[in-house]
Design goal:
The protein has about 450 residues and is an alpha/beta fold. Helix content is about 30%, strand content about 25%.
């Protein structure tokens, strides 16, 4: 057992951990990254990257076998830019082992004991497996093994109507599988605006996905032929070849022994942090999925840099502000959101602009008119609604929503007046013109639509 001292120890080699380690290196810190398994994390191997390869392939009508071959090539190409060897060439020490606290600011990993000035925890999350009767006896799929399939299943049941469930249900159906999607709630994508749920439900149904909304799954048993699974619900049963479980994520804290490091967990089991990403233990920070804040690669990447800055800067701290971090569900159409939903916005002073994509010329040209832009504006301090106030939330449902949302994110981050969005000249005909059309509703009527107060009927 070797004992050593380091300026910064990062536990976890996903997006947040890599970001933190590289930020430490840029500061000239002696940095070590400890990762149990391959560096790269969920996004590279079992999340964003492989799922988007299959989604793109399905949209283009490519065979499943060809798509899987492309998936493995893309994953390895991206993984090669952030491997242990690459990080070590950059100057980051990498230890491939599972780490656990020995005492505050001291970690053990395999045959290493490391005393750190600062520690950043970034161990990520893994799928929640619900306690449903018979599930443990079923050879079910999650995001951790679904991308290892060698052949397209004839049929598949998808448990969960969140982003993972909706994205993969649509992908499998477009590839040719029969797909049943089960969601206990009455609508899909519960974190999004109800209008977004409605559009995506319609899109999945149009593709041929069989939706079971507001339906509780009670049990699973192997099918009578032994080659599938029978799903029992309140409304009957369904037999499919495969079952995919996508009902949420839980933090990876097994073996970390946070108690020995004086690190507190919240009631859900995530590591508790403050607005500066500090944990309850002095000198220990947490980033990424393990915090339960925003379970997205780009959020973890941002947190990693902020945590290092806060841990070592002498000149003030930076808050991690979730209000201007966007996210995208990569269905077709896509769903992009930043900031508040209408139901979460303050009653006083909030105004809503709503623009259906059918009123956007580019969408009409391409025939992709499903969806909308919804902007939520609130008063600025002192100036109130002068200049339209400020954007406090937005949802876009569109074929290009994931690209369109960033103009709004920039306006939020720079605290721009809503009027700046209405004044911005867009090339014609582009998807982003919809942002200007929607923002203009805060100032005058556009095609019969004008921004409305919260909780009044939209002029859709």
């Amino acid at each position: 057992m070797t004992s050593s001292n380091r300026d910064l120890v990062v536990v976890g080699g996903g997006a947040g951990g890599i970001s933190a380690a590289r930020a430490g290196l840029r500061r000239g810190l002696q940095t070590v990254l400890i990762q149990d398994g391959r560096v790269g994390g969920d996004c590279t191997f079992t999340g964003c990257v492989p799922s988007k390869v299959l989604i793109e392939a399905a949209a283009k009508g490519r065979p499943f076998k060809d798509a899987m071959s492309q998936l493995h090539n893309v994953v390895e190409k991206i993984a090669s830019t952030e491997s242990s060897e690459v990080l070590e060439r950059e100057g980051i020490e990498v230890i491939e082992a599972r780490a656990h606290f020995v005492s505050p600011l001291t970690l053990s990993a395999r045959d290493h004991t490391i005393h750190a000035r600062k520690i950043i925890l970034a161990t990520g999350s893994r799928p929640v497996i619900p306690p449903i009767s018979g599930l443990a006896e079923i050879d079910y799929l999650t995001n951790e093994n679904v991308f290892e399939l060698s052949t397209l299943p004839d049929s598949i049941s998808v448990l969960g109507g969140g982003p993972i469930g909706c994205e993969l249900a649509q992908m499998f159906r477009r590839m040719g599988a029969t797909v049943h999607l089960f969601e206990a709630a009455g609508r899909l994508l519960l974190r999004e605006e109800p209008e977004a749920s409605e559009v995506i439900a319609g899109a999945l149904i149009a593709d041929g996905v069989i939706l079971h909304l507001g339906v509780s799954v009670n049990a699973f048993v192997p099918s009578s032929d032994g080659h599938g699974v029978q799903t029992f619900t309140d409304e009957g049963s369904v037999v499919t070849e495969k079952l995919l479980v996508g009902v949420g994520r839980r933090p990876v804290v097994e073996g970390l022994d946070p108690t020995s490091g004086n690190v507190e967990l919240d009631e859900r089991g995530f590591i508790r942090t403050d607005q500066f990403l500090r944990t309850s233990a002095s000198g220990v920070y947490a980033v990424g999925d393990i915090t339960g804040l925003l379970p997205f690669t780009h959020a973890a990447d941002e947190m990693g840099r902020i945590a290092v800055r806060n841990a070592f800067s002498r000149y003030g701290r930076t808050r991690f502000d979730v209000s201007s971090i966007p996210w995208v569900t990569f269905t077709d159409p896509e769903v992009a959101r930043v900031g508040l939903r209408e139901s979460d916005a303050p009653q006083s002073g909030t105004r809503i602009a709503y623009l259906p994509m059918a009123s956007v010329d580019r969408a009409v040209i391409t025939g992709e008119t499903d969806g909308f832009v919804k902007l939520i504006a609130g008063p600025k301090p002192v100036l109130r609604s002068i200049g339209g106030g400020k954007i406090i939330g937005a949802t876009i449902v569109s074929s290009r929503a994931g690209e369109m949302i960033h103009e709004i994110v920039l306006a939020m981050r720079t605290k721009a007046f809503v009027g700046r969005l209405a004044q911005m000249v867009h090339a014609y005909p582009t998807w982003s013109t919809a942002i200007r059309q929607a923002a203009a509703q805060f100032f005058f009527e556009i095609d019969g639509r004008r921004a409305r107060p919260k909780d009044t009927d939209s002029s859709r």
